[in-house]
Amino acid sequence: MKITPISLFIVFAAICMIGYILNRLKNERTGIRAALVWMFLWGCAGFFSLFPGLLNWATRFAHMENRIIFVLLVAVFILFALLFNISTKMEKMQRNIEKLVQEIALTNYKVEQPSKDQKEDR
């Protein structure tokens, strides 16, 4: 195992990002689920930059020849999973917004319509 400047930079960046995520979690600007996902991803980046031999083992286990292609393929799968998660949350929020707009419209309609007593007084 040979530690290179780029691997040290990746480890430093991973530590900084994990600290940043923990700070956002502490200040309640990030949810626990999102924080765990991002800490896991940054932790894996730092870990595999220090121990690239394990990445070679994973590449052989997946029957792939090139480590870079393996990393990119894993990254694409992770991005697809994150994109799916985000799109399902957006669809849920859109349905909630539509429901709220309908409820507000009905409430406004009921408030703006004069009651029977008011019509009889006229």
What does this structure look like?
With 122 residues, this protein is mainly α. It folds into two domains: 1-50; 67-111. The protein contains five helices and no strands. Helix 1 runs antiparallel to helix 2 (32-50). The radius of gyration is 26 Å and the shape is elongated.
Radius of gyration, rounded?
26 Å
How is the biggest beta sheet arranged?
none
Q: Summarize model confidence as the mean pLDDT.
A: 90
> What is the terminal separation in angstroms?
91 Å
Net shape: elongated
By secondary-structure content and strand pairing, the structural class works out as mainly alpha
**Based on the structure, what is the oligomeric state of the protein chains?**
single chain
Number of DSSP helices?
5
* Helix content estimate: over 70%
Could you name the ranges where pLDDT drops below 50 across 5 or more consecutive residues?
Answer: none
Number of domains: 2
DSSP, total strands? 0
The SSE string, one letter per element, is HHHHH
Beta content comes to under 5%
Brief sketch in words of this structure:
This protein has 122 residues and is mostly helical.
List its traits.
single chain; 122 residues; mainly alpha; 2 domains; 5 helices; 0% strand; elongated
Break the fold down into its secondary structure elements and pairings.
Elements: H1 5-26, H2 32-50, H3 52-61, H4 67-112, H5 116-121
